[in-house]
Design goal:
This protein is of the alpha/beta class. The chain has two domains: 270 residues, Aldehyde Dehydrogenase, Chain A, domain 1; 187 residues, Aldehyde Dehydrogenase, Chain A, domain 2 (3-Layer(aba) Sandwich). The protein has 16 helices and 23 strands. The strands form six sheets. It has a seven-stranded mixed sheet, sandwiched between helices. A six-stranded mixed sheet has the order 10-9-8-11-12-22, with helices on both faces. It has a three-stranded mixed sheet with strand order 1-5-4, covered by helices on one side. Helix 1 packs across helix 8. The termini are far apart.
């Protein structure tokens, strides 16, 4: 069995804690590798290496740092198939979806090639008599990120690419469920020209997370995962004086107006609700048709589409719609929530509980499910299911529909499908949710805008990628400079007001 490693100082390093986690093949249920879980001492070693490497990297001018990012983009394109296969093998998502995972991370790296422009400061000539002022954006030092299992390529790159472009060192603690791709990315960064020790990968669990949170040298922490853990990391990191951005859970609503193109809306819900087995923080998990007639038409369109979904391993070809969920525990949790929906009175229109794939009976596959007549008091509405389950909540009016989304504790993403520009404009302006789609089901912003939700979906005041990332990974220093003439006449001890 393969034993994975940490990546420290440009080398693969075996774990020394004696603790390991199993890495599964989700399609078969078999353990395919074991990954070391770092001790506090191992994390401290990674921080020590990063702290030594960071000053020279920070002193490298932004244009040269950008050239490393440019070379990294070329290597990502070169190894796209290799990265996608490794990702699919450990996560379970289809190969096209895995390539999309890498691609959306790659696009953030492309944005970071613009570091020389994004890191320019400001300058004021003659702010006072003989006084000039200018600001500089300087790196934080050693930074760290804790990333989830569902995007093992994209989210690490969302964090480490801007952090490195700004001149920081970065310690990545990826999910222990699918750690191979993060290790591969670290190798490619060094092949692209990143000095050894600037990017470290430390595999681990809560002990490693706490070690990063409490280490005085670590200046910032980024996190993506569940809301309870996001709250813990945000509170602990802030209490320790760190800059912290944490992204938590989601429950994304898609409002379907009576005038919507129902085929377009149904197709959008299929991709947004069932793609990647629903293991996306931007998945649409709640459809909100306005009016019973709209709901009936939508359900009529959805059922045959759902029943035709092809579920299988990534090795079955590119026509597989989605694969297994990541672990047996995830499957058990999803099925438990589905049963709660039935018990609490929701109508299970498409029942995938008996789904079984011949030859893969031990895999973590979950069939597609569609609920109708879900109400806000039900667990399947309140909780993030993170599985191939779509709930339909019927709304009597547009105002009732928008209130559902606005009253939910999560505020990551939302969408409206309509032909009415006035309704779409009102929705975009009023909704208290961070990312909004108008006839777009998964409104993930492109790399040059920022990604981030509202309410209990985010903790911190800056979003991921885009301009916010360069703010998060730098500090602004303002310099007031005076080169007085006639200094031979003696210094002045009173501040001279501007004329």
């Amino acid at each position: 069995m393969q034993e994975l490693t940490h990546y420290l100082g440009g080398e693969h390093v075996k774990g020394s804690s004696g603790r390991f986690a199993d890495v599964y093949n989700p399609a078969t249920g078999e353990v395919q590798a074991k990954v070391p879980l770092a001790s506090t001492d191992e994390v401290a070693k990674a921080v020590e290496i990063a702290a030594k490497a960071q000053p020279a990297w920070a002193a490298t001018n932004p244009q040269r740092r950008a050239r490393v990012m440019m070379a990294f983009v070329g290597l990502l394109n070169r190894d796209m198939d290799k990265l996608a296969e490794a990702l699919s093998r450990e996560h379970g998502k289809t190969l096209p979806d895995a390539k999309g995972d890498v691609q959306r991370g790659l696009e953030v790296v492309e944005y970071c090639i613009g570091a020389p422009e994004l890191l320019k400061g400001e300058y004021t000539d003659s702010a006072g008599p003989g006084i000039d002022m200018y600001s500089m954006k300087q790196p934080l030092g050693v930074t760290a990120g804790i990333t989830p299992f569902n995007f093992p390529a994209m989210i690490p790159m969302w964090m480490f690419a801007p952090a490195l472009a700004c001149g920081n060192a970065f310690i990545l603690k990826p999910s222990e469920r699918d750690p191979s791709v993060p290790l591969m990315l670290a190798e490619l960064m060094e092949e692209a020209g990143l000095p050894k020790g600037v990017l470290q990968v430390v595999n681990g669990d809560k002990e490693a997370v706490d070690a990063l949170l409490h280490h005085s040298v670590v200046q910032s922490i980024g996190f993506v995962g569940s809301t309870p853990i996001a709250e813990y990391i945000y509170g602990t990191g802030c209490a320790n004086g760190k800059r912290v951005q944490c992204f938590g859970g989601a429950k994304n609503h898609m409002i379907v107006m009576p005038d919507a193109d129902m085929d377009q809306a149904a197709d959008a819900l299929i991709g947004a609700g069932y793609g990647a087995a629903g293991e996306r923080c931007m998945a649409i998990s709640v459809a909100v048709p306005v009016g019973d007639e709209t709901a009936d038409r939508l359900i009529e369109k959805l059922v045959p589409r759902i029943e035709k979904l092809k579920v299988g391993p990534y090795t079955a070809g590119d026509d597989v719609d989605y694969g297994p969920v990541v672990t047996a525990a995830a499957k058990e949790n999803i099925l438990g929530l589905i049963q709660s929906g039935v018990d609490q009175g929701a109508e299970l229109v498409v029942d995938g509980r008996d789904f079984s794939l011949q030859g893969y009976e031990d895999g973590f596959f979950v069939g597609p499910h569609l609920f109708d007549r879900v109400t806000p008091d039900m667990d399947i509405y309140k909780k993030e299911i993170f599985g191939p389950v779509l709930s339909t909540v019927r709304a009597g009016s547009y105002e009732e529909a928008i209130k559902l989304a606005m009253d939910h504790e999560y505020g990551n993403g939302t969408a409206i499908f309509t032909r009415d520009g006035d309704a779409a404009r009102d929705f975009a302006n009023r909704i208290n949710i961070g990312m909004v789609g108008i006839n777009v089901p998964i409104p993930v912003p492109l790399a040059y805008h920022t990604f981030g939700g509202w309410k209990k979906s985010v903790f911190g005041d800056l979003n991921q990628h885009g301009p916010d990332a360069f703010k998060f990974y730098t500090r602004t220093k303002t310099v007031t400079s005076r080169w007085p003439s006639g200094i031979k006449e003696g210094g002045e001890f009173n501040f001279k007001a501007m004329d």
